Amino acid sequence: MSDNEMLDKEEIFSKVLRAGRRTYFFDVRSTKAGDYYLTITESKKFTNDDGSFHYKKHKIYLYKEDFSGFTEILNEMTDFIVNEKGEEVISERHQRDYQKSYDQNPVSAVSEEVTASTESFTDVSFDDI
Q1: Cα–Cα distance between 81 and 98 in angstroms, integer?
Q2: Inter-CA distances, 63 with 25, 32, 66, 79, Å
Q3: All structural domains of the chain with their residue ranges
Q4: How far is CA 66 from the centre of its chain?
Q5: Residue pLDDT, tens place only, 21-36
Q6: Other CB atoms within 10 Å distance of the CB of residue 42
Q7: In 3D, which of 99, 102, 80, 101 has the Cα closest to residue 91?
Q8: Is domain 3-115 annotated with CATH 3.10.450.700?
Q9: Residue 1, SS3?
Q10: Most buried residue among 8, 38, 112, 113 by CB atoms closer than 10 A?
Q11: Cα gap 17→106, rounded to integer Å
Q12: The overall pTM is greater than 0.85
């Protein structure tokens, strides 16, 4: 049996979630004993300077005995995030009018730095150089 046939035999059920540069693959697979487990793969596309690209993948294997605890914690964490920050996405990438806290008043921040740095100078005559 070839490797492709073996892979096809192990995959039972699959779903894909595309999310920008990331793609999530959810695959039900079969163990040698015939039981099922879940793999979750995150694949992220990166573009090189020359225009070529490559993918980085991270995989989680989740077995039936861990489903309950995993689901409980995942639900708790996602509920916490939504309750604390709402469902609206807040990020520089997703909002054109998003400003980081230090971007709120960039002119005054620069002028403070200039004032502080010029106070430490002593009188220098360029004729001495």
Answers
A1: 19
A2: 16, 14, 6, 23
A3: 3-115
A4: 24
A5: 899 999 999 998 999 9
A6: 16
A7: 99
A8: yes
A9: coil
A10: 38
A11: 39
A12: no
